[in-house]
Amino acid sequence: MSRQILNKNYFSRRNNKKYMGSSQFKAFCECEAAALHSIKTGASEKPTKSMLIGSYVDAYFSGELDDFTITHPEIFTKSGRLLADFEHARYIISRIERDKMFMKYLNGGAQVIKTGTIAGVPFKIKIDSYHDGRAIVDLKIVRDFEPVWAPGKGKINFIEYWGYDIQAAIYQEIEGNKLPFFIAAATKEPEPDIDIFQIPQHVIDVAAEKVHKLAPHFQAVKTGIELPVRCGKCDYCKRTKKIERIRSMDELC
Ligand SMILES: [Zn+2]
Questions:
Q1: Spelled out in words, what is the top-level CATH class assigned to the domain 7-45+99-251?
Q2: Rounded to two decimals, what is the model's pTM?
Q3: Rounded to the nearest whole angstrom, what is the distance from the C-alpha of residue 76 to the centroid of ligand 1?
């Protein structure tokens, strides 16, 4: 019998090897070589303080704050008080809790894990708030709701920039009932903004095409059948770079 995926081992090395997930798929889109390296070694980037603020709020609403504070003692001062950034996380939480609609959307099944396949590739998903038969809701704590500059694309909305459309496509297909997908979002601004955004189905459909097209190749890279492509720009590529030819100044622009 195969071992069950639980919250505590959702991101374990074993399960990251066995299943593709939304973050792993997005990592492969960024740089195949770096994604493969992180799966093989289990090494992940150390979370920044800004990422931890989001995780703190996530943990609070999924009832995992106790575990979170044990695994992240760095959120406290030496005298045991919460660092100012996490006091702000508490402020974001209190803002969310004051909104009836936000709380209604967050009130589904918490951290519901499901597995399945897309284009023959095993996938895992973890739904923040699952309203069975009605909706999939993902909680996001973001800098703000302003458009973000993406190289080659110009300014795009934060949902597309962070690949939440890809996440929606993966979640919707693994859940299996084409449920509407919502982002319940709050900002880290001094006065947090809140909103609930639905990702339109036509956007999810385009993202789903991309997932179907690329997942089999990423899986072949994962299993060593195909070689990973190096992006040449990320930290991993820079760290492992070997100079093999002399470049002309003309290549710089
Ligand atoms: Zn790279």
A1: alpha beta
A2: 0.92
A3: 34
